[in-house]
Amino acid sequence: MAPGAADGDAMLQLIANFLLYALGTGALLTSYLAFSPMTRDLVVFLSRDQQITIFKYRRLLWAVGIACLAALLLRALLPLFDGPTFLGVAHWAWLIITVPTVLLLSLAFWAMYVPVVMAAPKRHIVAGIAEADGFLQPDSIILGLAMGDKVRAYPRDLIARPHWFNDEVGGRPVMISYCILCNSGQAFIPVLKNGARLDLRNMTAFDNNTIYHCNNTGNFIQQLDARVISGPDEGETLESFPVIMARWDEWKRLHPETDVFYAPPETLRDRIVQKMLMTMIPLSRLAARDEPWHLVRKEIDTRLPAMSFVFGVQIAGDACAYPVTALADNPVVNDTVGGEPVAVFYDAAHDIGQVFSRRAGDRTLTFTATDSAIARDEETGSTWSVSGKALGGELAGTQLDAAPHWNQLFWFSWAAFKPGTKINTGDPSAQAAA
Known about the structure:
Elements: H1 3-30, H2 48-56, H3 58-77, H4 93-112, H5 114-117, E1 125-127, H6 129-132, E2 141-147, E3 150-155, H7 156-159, E4 164-169, E5 172-179, E6 184-188, E7 200-206, E8 209-214, E9 220-222, E10 227-230, E11 240-242, E12 244-247, H8 248-254, E13 259-262, H9 268-280, H10 283-288, E14 309-315, E15 318-323, H11 324-327, E16 332-337, E17 340-347, E18 352-357, E19 359-360, E20 363-364, E21 367-369, E22 375-377, E23 383-384, E24 390-392, E25 405-410, H12 411-417, E26 422-423
Parallel strand pairs: 3-13, 15-26
Antiparallel strand pairs: 1-13, 2-3, 2-12, 4-5, 5-6, 6-11, 7-8, 8-9, 9-10, 14-15, 14-25, 16-17, 17-18, 19-20, 21-22, 22-23, 23-24
Helix pairs in contact: 1-3, 1-4, 3-4
């Protein structure tokens, strides 16, 4: 072969090798960047729909990426052993480039690819208070759920890694969801109106809030929207129940009948990720920041500090936030949201609060703060606990119904997903409109 032809052929081989490497790594990185907490901010320009589209085609991207890098490795390896060169040839230097690339990408997917890393626990137990005292500290934060006459607690530090637990409470399937970046927890009934059972998995975070994906139905659910945002059942809202953020010692005092869902990480990877989360972004560190952990795509609402805690209520499209700092001074707030009378009770000494309907039978109650209990209603003089139970008076023993709400989440997240939200500080004259 003439020298010029040989040089031209070598150049074509070099171009082909570069294209194989670029296409292979590009396809794998495309399927990875938006779905890892380490690289998510690099692609903050992607919309939620674009992220969902990439996830839908992830297997095709994996196939393209693996095929291209495998072809490049073969092009470099086979000539070294006098093997066939029908795939073309590559200088051995490509091995030095490609092998570490493959190893690093494999490690990245194993350790930091959210749909894989945030896997469901292998097993769990339901423990009573005595047993739970053996693995929970008095100041451990739990997510408390009351459904009917059943009360259960979920340790925050354990649910922070997978972002959800599948459970059954009172004979009903329940998914306890938690997004560490928003400190937002909620219990969903993972069943669609058509009876289809959802098998939800954490996919990624959009504007710092978890998006779940269901392998069974192909639906995608934004946690703070509590509805299907993409898929065959788009627009359907899941039935949900509020969960209460509380210290373990306070929760068991208020609910001596509670039990605890305990699901510790067991695999090496899960333990590593759990330790990393609790070291890098514990709740105390997140709350001390001036801005969210990851970049957000929209302007942050500055009416309140971004990382301040609020109680968020949304009813019939109407939303309102109640800042915890204001509730410390005004622990009882009467309000109407979406046409429904609601009351916010907050116990500052124990940092626990809830939101209830103000309807008790055919009465609509008006509450004021008291020293001996959390609240007293003006209509009957009954006293009420922070759990919404009448402790004394005409309505003694009555339990208020919980209003749909999010319990002590970060303000930036509530404002981002409920952009028309009002703010109520407990002083009607100071209520801020959106």
